[in-house]
Design brief:
Structural class: alpha+beta
Radius of gyration: 29 Å
Largest sheet: 13 strands, antiparallel
Shape: globular
Low-confidence stretches: 12-45, 51-69
Oligomer: single chain
Helix content: 25-40%
Mean pLDDT: 83
Strand content: 25-35%
């Protein structure tokens, strides 16, 4: 809600309204209107209650089948059928503009009827406009005569108002007539009239979004998929689906904006920071403001993470959800299976831009939304992963998903897309998951029964941390079933199948939300048994989309939850961490050097060349130069070293030139060698991060042409883990990683 004074639901009936040019009706919605359910071309009054039943003259009037037969006969005699009462309207009154959405009728083949009315108010003054608030009528009563439709119900608002009763009157028009304007009245129950708006018809779509798409050289953007190409549910008609058409079926218009530009590419994949930089440089409609505009990049691949088909990467600043990417190398293909999967990936990532969460995460939104069956895994939705699909009865998996998927969003998702409050949906407004991270601690309560055969552990190398020290936790998933259990191996919270709750010293419980979320929707099943009883992951959770989570000294309590392949929710024991008070001015200064917003982003991103993060890089460099022996320096060196070892791509503003800062192996070795040395002495990063740093250090040596030192670095890594402190299967895993890294480096940089 804006700070504008007044209330748009009160006032006089004075108004001025200007019709918009867009009054066209999509051809695909024109067909079959003679069979619109519940519409009559007679003067007899028909009222539909909140349950959707129909009564003539206020009494039960025959069966639905008989009503439909009367409707068809009457419509045939009367000529062209009535237009459905649905779509978007706009009008002004008393310094406010109202965008109205009416959703009480449909047509055969058109979007499903959700029986809602909603609207957004904007205060206007001079040449400016500001968002004021939104409302929705969840269960309206609909009355029809031969000349008008009256919709009436109690609304929920984003602000407090006494005028809670909304009455919308829409004149009935036929398909060969221009749609009439809707009259919207706000009343204080029972019948005290407040403001009135006359809203001319704008569009059959509830919302319209401009969609700009670019692609890298060599990537062929998705065009369309014939849903009849492969087996599908009997209740899902075969049709040609494009990405805009998939959203049109949900009542949302995607307007392709401008030209689909082809931009330069490189043979290496794209990192999070490169994607965000590409958006800011190449998204011609981009600006730091809420707007119905979004950008999608068809990139080559996502570096360093197999299975990432797409990412809604714009979740790190104040104006989020404006950009996403799909990764062509993983989703390409001309066959029907590949085209079907490509369509799902595009629609899925754009869904995140509309602030739709994964099917299994909706209870973590603010406010929480209800989960579908099996903790959301039973949802037949664009927002589920096919391999995660697990119905309450029967077999799950990708084959079962595609055999039952009707190529649509769930009703709750369509409700969000069409009628969600403005700031919760429009790009650049509320942050992903609608902003606030407050959660109910009960979401992480231990289950009353647990027959999953799995156990989740959460630990940290230290139970007490210095002020400003990066917070890294280790997750361990193991089996408790001697027969073994199969599940997915996505154990890192960035993959969004693991959640970590943090109770701060203030008593507030927040959810760690990764800076840049990714969609790892490739089936990666692991079997945990006697030979491999556990898998591990290490995660830096000190900084995320809500900033720093450990900003104040005191005691923190952490708990993780893992959502298994069968829908089981496995909860870890509580981990207690203490953040100590700084004991000197030097400690305080050092902590502040690590705690800046830009420093947090750099640590979360494992380094960046972005000019927007220059002061953060300067602060980390100061830590290295002035406090090089301090334990904090190892984290600054890690971020710097990983960034140096890797190239950094930047796109020119005209989208034609790709600037590549080549790897700097010398600087990478300078930093990473110190990280590895200190960590092998037990004074640096955790063992999982040490493994990563050692393999990247070996790569830096290989880039310099020193394969001998690269192999020696990997041999030292194996020896570090070859002690009684580590389980045999851990030693074997490290040895396998080292051997495969040696083979790749020899292949890439030559074996002499």
């Amino acid at each position: 809600m804006s700070t504008a004074s007044g209330d748009p639901t009160t006032g006089t009936a004075d108004f001025s309204a200007t019709p918009l040019a867009d009054t066209s009706f999509p051809e695909e919605w024109e067909s079959g209107q003679e069979s619109v359910r519940g519409e009559y071309a007679t003067e007899a009054s028909v009222t539909e209650g909140a349950t959707g039943g129909a009564t003539a003259g206020g009494t039960a009037g025959g069966t639905e089948r008989a009503a439909e037969q009367r409707q068809t006969a009457t419509a045939a005699a009367a000529g062209p059928a009535h237009r459905p009462t649905r779509g978007r309207y706009r009008g002004t009154s008393g310094g406010y503009e109202l965008i109205l959405r009416v959703d009480v009728d449909s047509v055969t083949g058109g979007p499903k009827v959700l029986r809602k009315v909603s609207g957004d108010f904007f205060s206007t003054g001079g040449g400016t406009q500001a968002y004021f608030g939104s409302f929705v009528v969840d269960a309206p009563t609909v009355s029809r005569t031969g000349t008008q439709v009256v919709i009436r119900g109690i609304a929920s608002y984003t602000w407090q108002t006494a005028h809670t009763l909304v009455r919308v009157t829409v004149p009935r028009s036929r398909t060969n007539q221009r749609p009439g304007a809707a009259t919207v009245e706000f009343l204080r129950p029972p019948d005290q009239l407040g403001a009135t708006y006359v809203c001319p018809y704008v569009s059959p779509y509830f919302r319209t979004v401009e969609w700009e798409q670019d692609s890298v050289a060599g990537a062929v953007p998705f065009l369309s998929y014939d849903t009849g190409s492969l087996p599908q549910p009997a209740n899902s008609p075969a049709r040609i689906l494009t990405v805009p058409r998939a959203y049109a079926e949900a009542g949302i218009e995607l307007l392709v904006s401008g030209t689909a530009n082809v931009i330069a590419n490189s043979r290496n994949g794209w990192t999070n920071t490169e994607l965000h930089g590409a958006m800011e440089t190449n998204f011609s409609l981009w600006r730091n403001a809420p707007q119905w505009k979004m950008w999608l990049l068809v990139a080559s691949s996502y570096e360093g993470m197999a299975g990432v088909r797409g990412i809604m990467f714009d979740a790190a600043d104040t104006f989020q959800r404006q950009g996403c990417a799909v990764f062509y190398d993983l989703i390409q293909g001309a066959g029907p299976e590949e085209q079907r999967a490509m369509l799902r990936t595009y629609v899925h990532e754009i869904g995140h831009a509309f602030n739709l969460l994964h099917s299994w995460q909706k209870n973590l939104a603010t406010p929480p939304a209800p989960l579908g069956g099996n903790n959301g895994f039973a949802d037949l939705s664009w927002m589920n992963y096919p391999q995660n699909y697990q119905p309450l009865n029967g077999n799950g998996g990708a084959a079962a998903y595609w055999g039952a998927f009707p190529f649509q969003f769930t009703d709750n998702e369509q409700l969000h897309l069409r009628h969600g409050f403005y700031r919760n949906v429009v790009m650049g407004a509320n942050a992903f998951a609608t902003g606030a991270a407050d959660i109910e601690p009960a979401l992480f309560d231990e289950p009353l029964t647990d027959e999953s055969g799995l156990r989740l552990g959460l630990r940290a190398d230290k139970s007490a941390l210095a002020f400003g020290e990066p917070v890294v936790v280790e997750l361990k998933l193991e089996t408790t079933d001697l027969r073994g259990r199969a599940t997915h191996n996505h154990l890192h919270p960035d993959d969004e199948l693991v959640s970590i709750a943090i109770r701060q010293p203030s008593g507030r419980t927040v959810l760690y939300r990764p800076l840049l979320r990714r969609c790892v929707d490739q089936d990666q099943t692991v079997r945990l048994d006697a030979n491999r009883p556990a898998i591990y992951s290490s995660a830096y959770i000190g900084y995320g989309r809500d900033g720093h989570y450990f900003q104040q000294p005191g005691t923190y309590q952490l708990r993780a939850a893992y959502l298994a392949s069968d829908g089981s929710r496995i909860v870890s024991p509580v981990l207690r961490l203490d953040v100590r008070h700084p004991v000197s001015e030097a400690d305080l200064r050092l902590g502040e050097l690590m705690m800046g917003e830009e420093q947090g982003k750099i640590l979360a991103l494992r380094g960046s060349d972005s000019s927007a993060l220059q002061s953060g890089n300067d602060a980390l460099q100061e830590v290295i130069e002035r406090h090089g022996t301090h334990p904090f320096a190892v984290y600054a060196r890690l971020a710097k070293g990983l960034n140096f070892e890797h190239e950094f791509k930047s796109l020119s503003p005209d989208k034609t030139e790709l600037t590549v800062r080549p790897p700097d192996p010398k600087s990478g070795i300078e930093q990473l060698a110190q990280v590895v040395k200190v960590s092998q002495q037990g004074k640096g990063v955790d063992n999982l991060t040490l493994n990563l740093a050692s393999r990247r250090l070996a790569r830096a040596y290989a880039r310099q042409g020193d394969l001998e030192e690269a192999n020696s670095t990997l041999d030292r890594l194996v020896r570090h883990f070859d002690t009684p402190a580590f389980k045999p299967y851990v030693k074997d895993a490290v040895r396998d990683q080292a051997d495969s890294t040696k083979a790749r480096l020899t292949e890439e940089f030559g074996g002499g």
